[in-house]
Amino acid sequence: MYICLKNLVTLPVPYCAIALNYARQMKMEQTAPGILYQRRVIAEHSLRNDLHSLHEKVFVFVDPAVFPLSLLNALKADVESADPGGDPSIYKRRVLLHTMMAGLGEQCHTDPLAHALEHLGEDLELHFQHVVTILEQRTEDGASDDNQYKTRLQKIYQDILTAAKDPSCPASQVETQLPCPEVSFHVWTKEDEIWNELVNFVLMVPADRNSAYLDEDDLKRNSVMSTMSTDSGIEGDLPISEFSSIMLESQGGPEEQSSSQSFYRRPCVRCPRAGNRMTLMMEAIKGNGGGVFTKDERNLTARIVVMGDDRTLGRLAKTLHTIRKREARHLLLTKRVNLEMYYIPVTDQSPPSNQEGLSEDMLTLAGYLGSMDLWYDCNISGLGAMILKLAQMQNVSQSDSSDPNTFLLDIISYYTRVSQHPVHLPIYSVKICFSGLSTHTVEEVFVAQLAMDFPEVKPYRATLKDTIKGSVRYKKYNQHEFHGAIVSINYRKASISDREVERVMSMTTSGMLIRVSPSCRIRSLHSVSISFQDMNPTRPSTPSLRAVSASIRVLEERTFTVCLDKDPRKTFKNVQSIEVSPCLDPGYSHQPSTKAKYSFGEGGESLSKYLNKTLTLPINTFCGNEQ
């Protein structure tokens, strides 16, 4: 297998990178058998040790717009079904058993070792730390002294067998298969929920409570004395009795005054406002050693798994843009956390067909990801409505005392562990200007499509007599019925050379559809496809065009409606004009490390203007593609 992987390195990117990655892992496993299993379990379950300090966690966010409320409890039970109660000793026993079996081979007797590990007691932590140290040193030193390595493992093996307490008690079978990672289930109702969970992950807040720095409700917990302070701290505002007691005790020395308990302020907590959350979070992270991070201290990996359709990816793109905007001037989370995003498409629609009158396809981006990665298409995109059916079956059979169904958890574990190569979905920003005297504008982002519609348009099915010039019905149809508005479009046509100038055109249309459709043939050509709708069949149809950016405004006293990513929650009315352009990374120009990296030194010209500054949504797949 190792020779086969080395031969695959001759393939083009990204397949050569995948082959090289697995070849290195296999070489590492040959040098120190059991090291991959050990590192995976330690990282996914946050087992404390002195050498390997990586922490990983999977956050599953489901969109309530796709999942019915009646199925959320069953879905949560499926995702969190393999939780052994949070006991780290279970995973430490698995690491020790697997390492001894991999390193000693036939010299390791599985049943006596599993029996001894079950009743090892407090010595379990000591032997676990020794095994972790031995394997990490073996990985660094290489296969220099194989006899010494096996001798050290054999000594620990004998110590475990002799140090087991109460060997007469029967031992439960210790499994050696790779356990599922730590997964937390969330119903994505609040826009800042991903940000809050990331902060809790950095601060190592337990999963059963939220961070007091972000959620006001958490401040009202029973474990916190949430007494609100009403006095201003000025002596004149204090009651006379308390003020007089302080004055009477002022005759004593400093030690007596400090030890006095007459004036006692109860411990209180001030509920932070939304504007103070960022400051409180910064102070908390810096208090935990988050002021300066080195490269080795970026030891946290948050795997965000979203389940839904195109609307869900639109919300995820907005969340990524918000995180990058918050991290623009002070890198806190992104300097400590490796953020990885995964997407499991789920829909409640019937399978698409070629018949007319069906609802809009809500999995267009999933189809694009499947076209880029066939392995993703058959393993992840193929789930479709299966997850909803499994949740319905689990909900019906919830009263039965059968074993939990771990199918969905196995899919999530396999997907997050194996797919480490992202496909970058382009994100586009839109600036929406409303009609009226108000100059209020809204800036949003979308990743699937932007639908522009005129609510005053009357759909009309023309007959043959309506299209005959000179007839009464033709005159009535073209003059009295409203079938569109005159709009002006300033756009820059997409081209490989990127040398196209801006073009201007005006036309009558009843609506537009701007789709973010990355080209599979030309992967570096990120553009939007603008198609026009017309209710009047007598007018010649306008072909669609591909543009890098576009500015659209109505030349009449009419307004239109804008809907982003097919999401009714992102619908804007009374719109006068929009500006669509590639979304720029908010934190790019504020990062001094990026500027210093691509510069010639003092007084030299910077190379940063030649780099790609657009923001993309990286969705991890099995092979991925280049940005």
Distance between the termini: 30 Å
Q: Outline, from the CA principal axes?
A: elongated
Q: Can you count the helices?
A: 19
Q: Report the mean per-residue pLDDT as an integer.
A: 78
Structural class: alpha+beta
- Residue windows where pLDDT falls under 50 for at least 5 positions: 211-229, 240-263, 289-296, 353-358
* Spatial arrangement of strands, main beta sheet: 8-11-12-13-15-14
Number of strands: 16
The proportion of residues forming helix, as a percent range, comes to: 25-40%
Using only C-alpha atoms, the radius of gyration works out to: 31 Å
Quick one: biggest sheet? 6 strands, antiparallel, barrel
Report the β-strand fraction as a percent range: 15-25%
Characterise this structure.
By secondary structure, this protein is of the alpha+beta class. It is 34% helix and 19% strand. It has 19 helices and 16 strands. A six-stranded antiparallel β-barrel has the order 8-11-12-13-15-14. The chain has a four-stranded parallel β-sheet with strand order 2-1-3-4, with helices on both faces. It has a two-stranded antiparallel ribbon with strand order 5-16. A hairpin with a 6-residue loop joins strand 14 (560-564) and strand 15. Helix 5 runs antiparallel to helix 6, helix 5 (88-104) packs across helix 7 and helix 7 packs antiparallel against helix 8 (146-163). The longest helix has 19 residues, at 123-141. It is elongated, with a radius of gyration of 31 Å. The model is unreliable at 211-229, 240-263, 289-296 and 353-358 (pLDDT under 50).
